[in-house]
Specification:
Helices cover 14% and strands 40% of the residues. It is mainly beta. The chain has a domain at 24-101 and 108-129: Sandwich (Immunoglobulin-like), CATH 2.60.40.3080. The strands form two sheets. Strands 1-2-3-6 form a four-stranded antiparallel beta sheet. Strands 5-4-7-8 form a four-stranded antiparallel beta sheet, with no helix packed on it. The radius of gyration is 20 Å and the shape is globular.
Amino acid sequence: MHIPLRKWARALPLVALASAGTANAYDPIVSKQGWVRVDSYQDQKCYGEIGTNGRFYVLAVYGLEPGERAELTITNGDMRPIRREVRANAGGKWSDYYIPFRFGAGEGGYVTATISGQSCQVPLGFSWQRNKGWEEKPSLRNPYR
């Protein structure tokens, strides 16, 4: 059987998309806004990542069952762990934002975020440092006058 080259050329993008799987998943805000990926994890079924703009962090997990409930556990230094139930969307993705902060407990630390569901467990983590504002003193003059 001979398949014309034109038909292959039209089918190739669909084949590439279908074979991409979760390995190429990347949270849209991270890729579109130029955020940096600080951690990722992948196993046979699931993929997870953390991206940041330096102040806010987005946690995302792909490959859960649609509507699956999972437990999110976040640790940040010596603070008591945060635990809450999360739920995957209809496509098997869960994502949320996190702003690391420890009131009166230092200028940074290491955060772990583990999402544990029936279908997979995704361990992620990142180091952070408190943002202190301007790196250079801003001009006191109004540039629009």
